[in-house]
């Protein structure tokens, strides 16, 4: 009875894998320099530091992700297709000790590639007992899915291990922020779908990627909803109106620091009115435009005592 339950779980995972991942290649684009340095660069220099990896999903990769142990004489692709075509009625293979944990996160696997998991991170790695070359995950504490990949060629990788774990606990050194994720079928060289793009980067930067292994369509199809709800931040007492570029930066700080109000006070207004800054809070600097030459300094209203 337990074997039947295991086989049913495997079939559900296979169905998900077959629909969302199998036969697809994902292009992960990141930067060779760390995030702090990256933010200080102008647009052209940002584009010149782009690097990439291709992660290729095939039939034979499935058994490693779900935790199936097979007789090495039987090809992994055959096990996959036998399960898919119902040629296996009862399990004729063993499962790994981490099977339950793998199944627990398996149905979030495609979210690493479709943009639903934000703040994605790539690279970084080393955990002694994990036999992979790179890892893909996120630095969001609530996300407990990590994908390990193994190199099969120049900038080409295949999925090799799925873990219910926290990314930051598996990596050493500097991990890379994922800037773009593109998708194509394995049997074509052209990437036509854009699944994710970092808000500080533009599609045209992708044309800087120097490779003969694939092409990027000049008319990329955005595989996500680009029409996000417009959120406005306000300046206390309306002494200044934040522009769209400034709003985007303030929203990032609003989320990261857990503020409750989207109301801000200019540092110069505080100095003019002798208002008091609470708890030695430091001013937040935001750029006035994409050239990143001029900045304004603000405090969230929660960090200031206003004298009426």
What's this model, at a glance?
The chain has helices spanning 2-20, 35-39, 43-48, 62-66, 76-84, 99-106, 244-256, 267-273; strands at residues 24-31, 50-56, 68-69, 94-95, 120-122, 134-138, 145-153, 156-164, 176-177, 180-185, 190-197, 215-222, 234-235, 263-266, 276-277, 284-287, 295-300, 304-305. The protein has 308 residues and is α+β, with helices and mostly antiparallel strands. The strands form four sheets. Strands 9-5-6-7-8-2-1-10-11-12 form a ten-stranded mixed β-sheet. A four-stranded mixed β-sheet has the order 13-14-17-16. Strands 3-4 form a two-stranded antiparallel sheet.
Shape: elongated
Number of helices: 8
- How many β strands by DSSP? 18
Percentage of residues assigned to helices = 10-25%
Mean pLDDT: 84
Main sheet: strand order = 9-5-6-7-8-2-1-10-11-12
Poorly predicted parts: none
Secondary-structure-based class equals alpha+beta
Structure description:
With 308 residues, the chain is α+β, with helices and mostly antiparallel strands. The chain has 8 helices and 18 strands. It has helices spanning 2-20, 35-39, 43-48, 62-66, 76-84, 99-106, 244-256, 267-273; strands spanning 24-31, 50-56, 68-69, 94-95, 120-122, 134-138, 145-153, 156-164, 176-177, 180-185, 190-197, 215-222, 234-235, 263-266, 276-277, 284-287, 295-300, 304-305. A 10-stranded mixed beta sheet has the order 9-5-6-7-8-2-1-10-11-12. Strands 13-14-17-16 form a 4-stranded mixed beta sheet. It has a two-stranded antiparallel ribbon with strand order 3-4. The protein is elongated and about 80 Å long. It starts with a helix and ends with a strand. The mean pLDDT is 84.
